[in-house]
Write a structure and sequence with these properties.
The protein is α+β, with helices and mostly antiparallel strands. Helices cover 23% and strands 33% of the residues.
């Protein structure tokens, strides 16, 4: 019983200081699988008609030293794989507000530190059909039911969202970024 108690306390400590270790392991395996999927993406992804759970691209958050493969969908199964594209928003490269959600404490915690992104920081989204560079305009804390964050605003933008504060879903931390350049695909096939 003492060993079990020590292991439970250790797990809680690791989760508080870093992230939940078991789900991090699962997410790491899923991210590797998503990378392989993007080496030869399905035609539906190239046609910009992905299915829930499909690997659709990669997001590079250089300012916080993070990069992840992105999936289609924000349901629980999709977000276990990595950041997920809101299906009701345009895909990167299409006009409007693109939105991507991610976990902060479980499943690799891809968006754990998005609140550290500052005005002017770059965000690069690499898709099989193009590369899209954004600049952070602002970061805000909003109510969990703030659906307006995905509304069109008259220019192309990217919205990143995650639960806030850590270990709670009471609110959302939202990063708003403006599209600054479009370029050719950078995701390389093997």
């Amino acid at each position: 019983m003492i060993v079990s108690g020590v292991l439970l306390i250790a797990d809680a400590g690791v989760t508080l200081l870093w992230q939940e270790p078991f789900s991090a392991y699962v997410a790491d395996r899923q991210q590797a699988s998503l990378g392989r999927q993007l080496e030869d993406p399905p035609k539906r992804v190239l046609r910009r008609q992905p299915l829930r759970g499909d690997a659709i691209g990669r997001i590079d958050l250089r300012a916080i030293h993070r990069s992840y493969y992105v999936v289609e969908g924000t349901d629980a199964d999709s977000l276990r794989k990595g950041p997920g594209h809101y299906p009701d928003t345009p895909l990167p490269g299409d006009r409007g507000t693109v939105a991507i959600a991610g976990h902060r404490t479980t499943y690799g915690a891809p968006f754990r530190h998005i609140d550290n992104l500052g005005k002017g920081d770059p965000i690069v989204v690499e898709m099989p059909y193009g590369t899209f560079r954004y600049r952070v305009e602002e970061t805000r804390i909003v109510p969990a039911n703030a659906l307006w964050i995905t509304d069109p605003v008259g220019y192309d933008r990217l919205v990143l969202s995650a639960c806030h504060p850590l270990y709670s879903a009471a609110e959302r931390v939202v990063v708003f970024a403006r599209l600054v350049t479009r370029g050719p695909p950078q995701v390389q096939k093997s």
